[in-house]
């Protein structure tokens, strides 16, 4: 689950991590009130920032610096309601429905801090780099040696000496080392206690007067842990998510929309990846990733069909099932019932293997519906590509 920058900064405040002062606004009136308050408090610069779940906002025109109230109002009018396009939103962009009106900072250096789960080591890795304020992916690709790492033992957690080591590698002054250690320890505590999967401070800045601050913050949470965090679950902004993905989550379906025209329905994430790959290999493009899970029932299959059919780009449906926990005959019965109930007119191609596969194929053959069944994944993928064309 993703949250907005202003929400992430509120969380950091609770862990005594320094962030700029600011207010969220959903209307121009609220933005004007927030800007007036910041200028009245003695700030000479105010920053107007679009709040969407994507990086690269500045390059897309979603972040503007204002040195007067008129400038701030002009920036708010330009950003609020705009369709902001960045490298992470795709060509359609994302409508800006919230702003963060924030006090400006006298930046001396822009650095980077980040925490992420490292599957290879089965540990949290704390990263730091002097190359802040830019896309960290580019830094990692071009100059990976400029990203410093500390792997955290889950038993003892982040140790002060590890934070101190990163602080020295960032080239901080002697007076900034101890505040930096406190800063990093606070970040790690926030990461663990909120069940985060990603926490990025980019940029992590030093100011002209030697202070440290999180100028921007991105936090992703583990969806599976949200039952422990009802307060965090309420931060979810459904307007920032694809409507079909939101609908799928209501029925415990794992769905991600893609830009192809062959809809995929599978049971198991690994099989889903393999299905998308073999469609590409056959010359087609997958329209989605949809995993119905190992214990899907008829209701879930029907809802899955409804979600797939809601995508206007879909020209064919490829169902690839390996029956283990989910028996093939049960799946076939559910597919037939869903196809009839929803009056599916699109070509449906299936590849079935596993428990009760012959019974499942018989159910499909005797349904009277026009199903195509491939004996192998490659054969079924070829049929799906042909049908979609």
Topology of this protein?
Elements: H1 5-14, E1 22-25, H2 28-40, E2 46-50, E3 63-66, H3 69-79, E4 83-84, E5 94-95, E6 99-103, E7 107-118, E8 123-129, H4 136-142, E9 147-152, H5 160-169, H6 174-193, E10 196-207, E11 212-214, E12 218-221, H7 230-233, H8 243-250, E13 254-257, E14 262-266, H9 269-281, E15 288-291, H10 298-309, E16 316-323, H11 328-341, E17 348-354, H12 357-365, E18 371-373, H13 377-388
Parallel strand pairs: 14-16, 16-17, 17-18
Antiparallel strand pairs: 1-6, 2-3, 2-6, 4-5, 7-8, 7-10, 8-9, 10-11, 10-12, 13-15
Descriptive notes:
- The protein is an alpha+beta fold and 389 residues long.
- The chain has 3 domains: 1-20 and 107-241, D-amino Acid Aminotransferase, Chain A, domain 1; 21-104, Dna Ligase, domain 1 (2-Layer Sandwich); 243-388, 3-Layer(aba) Sandwich (Rossmann fold).
- Helix content is 37%, strand content 25%.
- It is built from 13 helices and 18 strands.
- It has helices spanning 5-14, 28-40, 69-79, 136-142, 160-169, 174-193, 230-233, 243-250, 269-281, 298-309, 328-341, 357-365, 377-388; strands at 22-25, 46-50, 63-66, 83-84, 94-95, 99-103, 107-118, 123-129, 147-152, 196-207, 212-214, 218-221, 254-257, 262-266, 288-291, 316-323, 348-354, 371-373.
- The strands form 5 sheets. Strands 7, 8, 9, 10, 11 and 12 form a 6-stranded antiparallel sheet that branches. Strands 1-6-2-3 form a 4-stranded antiparallel sheet, covered by helices on one side.
- Helix 12 links the parallel strand 17 and strand 18 (371-373).
- Helix 2 packs antiparallel against helix 3 and helix 10 packs across helix 11 (328-341).
- The longest helix is centred in the middle third of the chain and has 20 residues, at 174-193.
- It is elongated.
- The relative contact order is 0.09.
- The mean pLDDT is 90.
- Keywords: ATP-binding, Ligase, Magnesium, Metal-binding, Nucleotide-binding, Tricarboxylic acid cycle.
- Its EC number is 6.2.1.5.
- Belongs to the succinate/malate CoA ligase beta subunit family.
- Mg(2+) binds at residues 202, 216.
- InterPro entries: ATP-grasp, ATP-grasp_succ-CoA_synth-type, ATP_grasp_subdomain_1, Succ-CoA_synthase_bsu_CS, SUCC_ACL_C, Succ_CoA_ligase-like_bsu, Succinyl-CoA_synth-like.
């Amino acid at each position: 689950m993703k949250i907005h920058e202003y929400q992430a900064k509120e969380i950091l405040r609770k862990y005594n991590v320094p962030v700029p002062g600011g207010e969220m606004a959903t209307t121009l009136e609220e933005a004007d009130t927030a800007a007036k308050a910041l200028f009245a408090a003695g700030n000479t610069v105010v920053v107007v920032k679009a709040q969407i779940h994507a990086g690269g906002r500045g390059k897309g025109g979603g972040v503007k610096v204002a040195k007067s109230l008129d400038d701030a109002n002009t920036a708010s009018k330009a950003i609020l309601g705009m369709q902001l396009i960045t490298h992470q939103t795709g060509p359609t962009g994302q409508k800006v429905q919230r702003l963060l009106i924030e006090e400006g900072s006298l930046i001396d250096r822009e650095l980077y801090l980040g925490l992420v789960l490292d599957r290879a080591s089965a540990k949290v890795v704390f990263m730091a780099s002097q190359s802040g304020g830019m896309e960290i992916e580019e830094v990692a690709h071009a100059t990976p040696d400029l990203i410093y790492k500390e792997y955290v033992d889950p038993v003892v957690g982040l140790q002060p000496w590890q934070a101190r080591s990163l602080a020295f590698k960032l080239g901080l002054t002697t007076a900034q080392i101890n505040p930096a250690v406190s800063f990093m320890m606070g970040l790690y505590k926030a990461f663990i206690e909120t069940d985060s999967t990603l926490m990025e401070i980019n940029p992590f800045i030093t100011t002209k007067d030697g202070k440290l601050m999180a100028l921007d913050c991105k936090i992703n949470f583990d969806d599976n842990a949200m039952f422990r965090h009802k307060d965090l679950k309420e931060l979810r902004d459904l307007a920032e998510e694809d409507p079909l993905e939101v609908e799928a989550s209501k029925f415990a379906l794992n769905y991600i929309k893609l830009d192809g025209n062959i809809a995929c329905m599978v049971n198991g994430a690994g099989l889903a990846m393999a299905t998308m790959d073999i469609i590409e290999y056959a010359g087609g493009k997958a329209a989605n990733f949809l995993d119905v899970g190992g214990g899907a029932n008829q209701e879930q299959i029907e809802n899955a069909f409804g979600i797939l059919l809601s995508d206007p780009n879909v020209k064919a449906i490829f169902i690839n099932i390996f029956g283990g926990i989910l028996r093939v005959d049960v799946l076939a019965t559910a597919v037939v019932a869903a196809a009839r109930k929803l009056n599916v007119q699109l070509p449906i191609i299936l590849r079935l293997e596993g428990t009760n596969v012959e019974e499942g194929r018989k159910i499909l053959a005797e349904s009277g519906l026009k199903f195509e069944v491939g004996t192998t994944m490659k054969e079924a993928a070829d049929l799906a590509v042909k049908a979609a064309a």
